[in-house]
Amino acid sequence: MFVSFFESIKYVGHLVPISFLRIFLGYYYLESALQKYNGDFLVKPKIAESISEFLPMSHAPEWYKLIISSQFIPQWQFLAFLITGFEFAIAVSYLLGYVVRPMALIGVFLSLNLIFILGPQAEELQKTFLAIHFVMAWIGAGRCLGIDYYFYKKRRGIWW
What we know:
The protein is mainly α. The protein has 8 helices and no strands. The protein has helices at 2-11, 16-38, 46-54, 62-72, 76-96, 100-118, 120-139, 148-154.
């Protein structure tokens, strides 16, 4: 497996800039998840307040607003743990370069939801992350400087 790490540079070396972007984004998500875990994001209802302020002005469909207001605002702690857990999983996946495609699809889902619930202060950043996650899923960015190349070489499939 260690040899295939260096082979990945030889055979898919054109993905090196994308892999640096993947590693940087993984570090960003790790910092964000650790900040939320160590801070008061999980114990104070900041996310519920933010959602209830921005939800009436959101461009989200009405059915989505109904689900968010009836399910996630009363159970804000579950949503906070869900967001923190997904950020941590995406961070580990992007840093190691392991199962990047499925985690990038989870990142697309997370960014899309955060666009609708967090408000205008995070909307532009989440739109950028939405595009980056989509590109990571499309290209399979874990194949260069990551563990995915080992599995890509052994078992070709859509996950690698």
